[in-house]
Design goal:
Blueprint lengths: L6 E14 L4 E16 L4 E5 L6 H8 L7 E6 L2 E2 L7 H4 L2 E4 L13 H11 L7 H11 L16 H13 L5 E5 L7 H18 L2 E6 L2 H7 L2 E6 L2 E7 H6 L4 H8 L48 E4 L2 E4 L5
Parallel strand pairs: 3-8, 3-9, 6-7, 7-8
Antiparallel strand pairs: 1-2, 1-4, 4-5, 9-10, 10-12, 11-12
Helix pairs in contact: 3-4, 3-5, 5-6
């Protein structure tokens, strides 16, 4: 019997209604996530990359139970994963680290209250809150005296460490990292990434690592998925996706990444702006900006095709 992956996503759709008029009727939908299928193995990291507005965060929030999926399936160890009203036993198994550590931490709560609140709510608190807080702070490389301070008294890197401590407090299996280091200085980014990798090894964590920074993803993710306009356009082992990109969109993203000490890539500048997710173009959603677009791209949605160790959704490989 084959071992089931930790997480399977099948044709997932998360649409937001557009309401207008006196009666607040639904006039359309913003198709933030529009038919995404992904797999994540236990103990591994899946990188999810793409430009702002492509639907990365909506996908992460849907997995964390913060948004309701319209269609599709989410399976966790082969079991259906409930949506936004999921029971507590599910909520503690999937946690989320948000992009902005300042706005995601309650300014009126001390660090101790923030990182032990979940333990108390779920009946998992053993001993005193001070002991639990000291242990969690130690795990993320902070001194126990910090438990009595408020969020505004910490630096950005320290606040993100508190966010990490809160996320691991309930012993989750999957942590959704939504641009977890993008708001930090480069040197602090490296420290937080090192922390996440250490905790992954110690606690057998799996990560969905959402980022627009391909250099950061290359340091943490075994596999990478590239997202554009609510759809996945390319997946595969991170090294293969970054060193041998096949989709024109992936090539354009990588052309903007500096490579110190290596031959400079020719910069690919995409024309225009990404189409609106409320009115995506027919066929391949990337065709209005694609330098290699063909007639079939304007009418037919490409199917995923195996290329090397990954898959690509592009008519160039049809």
């Amino acid at each position: 019997m084959s071992k089931k992956p930790l997480l399977e996503i099948r044709e997932l759709k998360t649409w937001y209604p557009i309401r207008r008029g006196v009666l607040n009727r639904t006039r359309g939908y913003i198709k933030a996530v529009d038919g995404v299928s992904l797999t994540l193995e236990k103990g591994q990291t899946l990188g999810l990359v793409g430009e702002s507005g492509c639907g990365k965060t909506s996908l992460g929030r849907t997995l964390a139970g913060l948004e309701q999926a319209r269609e599709g399936k989410m399976l966790f160890h082969g079991e259906p994963l409930p949506g936004i009203n999921r029971p507590r036993k599910w909520r503690k198994r999937i946690q989320m680290i948000f992009q902005d550590p300042f706005s995601s931490l309650n300014p009126r709560m001390t660090a101790m209250d923030i990182i032990t609140e979940g333990l108390e709510e779920h009946g998992m608190l053993k001993g005193t809150r001070e002991e639990a807080a000291a242990n969690l702070l130690s795990q993320v490389g902070m001194d126990k005296e910090a438990m009595y301070r408020y969020p505004h008294e910490f630096s950005g890197g320290q606040r993100q460490r508190l966010s990490v401590a809160r996320a691991i407090s309930l012993h989750p299996e999957l942590v959704v990292c939504d641009e977890a280091v993008s708001a930090l200085d480069v040197s602090v980014q490296a420290q937080v990434i090192k922390l996440l990798l250490r905790l992954q090894a110690e606690l057998s964590l799996s990560y969905l690592f959402i980022s627009h920074d391909l250099a950061v993803v290359s340091a943490v993710a075994k596999d990478t998925a590239v997202m554009y306009l609510g759809k996945i356009v390319e997946t595969g082992p991170t090294k293969e996706v970054l060193n041998n990109p096949r989709h024109p969109y992936t090539r354009a993203l990588l052309s903007a990444v500096p490579r110190p000490g290596r031959e400079k890539r020719e910069r690919i500048v995409l024309p225009g702006e990404p189409p609106s997710p409320a009115n995506p173009p027919p066929g391949c959603g990337f065709h209005p900006r694609c330098p290699q677009a063909m007639d079939v791209c304007r009418t037919t949605t490409p199917a995923g095709r195996q290329q090397g160790a990954g898959r690509v959704w592009c008519h160039l490989y049809g």
